[in-house]
Design the sequence.
């Protein structure tokens, strides 16, 4: 019996080449807002809102906002689309909160909330929270090992409770960038997690999901069970997909949960 201490050169090369082709075909591992489909989706949602000629603003939630890059994009694209907006920004890191208040504190359309979204109120440890890292997480991640000393306690908030307190009856876009805490954040909506109340939910999937001991299947089951249609985000398209085990690869990607009327093209 032959045992290879290291894989052969051709097998290793084929895996690398095949992996790159797979990432390209699947739009994986591309965090660039302008190229990975996030900008395309945002523009489409804002344009559709304008076309409806509704009197209310486009309501968005930016959860895990860090220093406000996505919020800034919403405001900019809304201005181009001539679409009134209302953005609720959630961020637990004190350093990032200072940056957010400095950037948007005088912007009436933006409401900044110093808390992390979860499925129960209270406090939790935010790993790498003191440094303002974009990878800061409620999940203890191996990639944050060097920053463990920057951990601090932060408040937790249920989005469903916040919506009730603020009398928010409809959210057009919920953007989750919560580094492995997607399931708790979604569960914290309670009965508000319905397509009639929240139109579109964009969430990240990847290594943080693995560190959070969560599977894509669990997220699918929760959202599909509440009436959403799930799709993967591509540069200029949303590909509607039923869950399959081959999708469970923990490569960085964006998925979108759609209210049925969006999936039907309305």
Sequence:
């Amino acid at each position: 019996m032959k045992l290879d201490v290291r894989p052969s050169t051709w097998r290793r090369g084929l895996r690398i080449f095949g992996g790159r082709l797979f990432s390209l075909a699947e739009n994986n591992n591309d965090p660039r807002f302008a190229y990975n489909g996030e900008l395309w989706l945002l523009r489409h949602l804002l344009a559709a809102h304008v076309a409806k000629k509704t009197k209310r603003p486009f309501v968005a939630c930016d959860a895990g906002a860090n220093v406000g890059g996505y919020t800034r994009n919403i405001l900019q694209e809304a201005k181009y689309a001539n679409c009134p907006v209302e953005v609720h920004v959630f961020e637990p890191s004190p350093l990032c909160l200072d940056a957010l208040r400095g950037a948007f504190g005088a912007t009436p359309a933006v409401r900044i909330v110093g808390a992390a979204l979860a499925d129960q109120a209270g406090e939790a440890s935010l790993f790498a929270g003191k440094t303002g890292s974009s990878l800061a997480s409620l999940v203890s991640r191996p990639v944050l090992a060097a920053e463990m000393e920057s951990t601090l306690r932060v408040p937790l908030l249920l989005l469903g409770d916040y919506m009730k307190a603020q009398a928010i009856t409809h959210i057009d876009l919920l953007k989750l960038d919560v580094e492995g805490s997607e399931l708790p954040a979604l569960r914290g909506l309670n009965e508000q997690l319905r397509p009639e109340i929240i139109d579109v939910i964009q969430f990240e999937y990847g290594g943080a999901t693995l560190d959070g001991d969560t599977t894509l299947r669990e997220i699918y089951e929760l959202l599909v069970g509440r009436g959403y249609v799930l799709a993967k985000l591509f540069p200029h398209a949303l590909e509607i997909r039923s869950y399959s085990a081959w999708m469970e690869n923990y490569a960085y990607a964006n998925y979108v949960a759609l209210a049925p009327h969006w999936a039907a093209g309305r």
